[in-house]
Amino acid sequence: MTTLLSLGHGYSARALARRLLPQGWRIIGTTRNPAKAEAFRTEGVEPLLWPGDLGPALAEATHVLCSAAPDAGGDPFLQAAPEIARSRAGWVGYLSTTGVYGDHQGGWVDETTPLTPQSDRGRQRVLAEGQWHATGLPVHVFRLAGIYGPGRGPFEKVRDGTARRIVKPGQVFSRIHVADIAQVLEASIRHPNPGAAYNVCDDNPCPPEEVLSHAARLLGLPDPPEVPFDRASMTAMQRAFYGESKRVRNDRIKDELGVTLLYPDYPQGLAALLKDETRGI
Known about the structure:
By secondary structure, the protein is α/β, with parallel strands linked by helices. It is 36% helix and 19% strand. The strands form four sheets. The protein has a seven-stranded parallel sheet with strand order 3-2-1-4-5-7-11, sandwiched between helices. α4 (76-80) links the parallel β4 and β5. It is globular.
């Protein structure tokens, strides 16, 4: 049986599980939260409370996916369970971030661009990528842009009036619908290329305030208030995001993996989210 061990079974990994389970896959997902463990069971995923013994799951896993955020020491699973490096899995995926490229002042980057992270978060991701490659396992790295999807769209904040269009001239972000992350991961599983890195983003990098304005139009509401970046109240993580501006190329997922994006731009992605909301999905 094909078995996926999902280390840090989170939002993107759960989307992948929804694609694989109907095909007869067995999915084992780790979590620290007993409530999430119960939710996994209802989704058909076998929960493994962490910290725990990964030995039996590693012995049975044909595929491994790590979605855990790193810390100053790098990947938390590799630090806590070095036996992962002895896995016999034929495919290993690591979910990273486009933050590894740092700031390019709105310029384009691709997978050959040098990794020059500027934030602690980006530097930790570069460290973790290197640690996974150093295991000698058949590792595939997926550098994700800003993720949106069910439960992570802009509509709630636009509706309740808390959304703010933070404007920083020249600022652009890339983004990706979670359903497209899942199909990229599945395509890589079908067409493995150990050592490869893939940018996972849509075709339309753009200023973030555009997305909020479009969401408001879809809802028939006025634009959220505009706030200049230098006067915006933001968390440290949000401010770090705005400290980097780049456009991310996604040619490799199309050319190597044959992926056709379900949602190649945010208007299509947001329209689908709103349609699903109205249908109660």
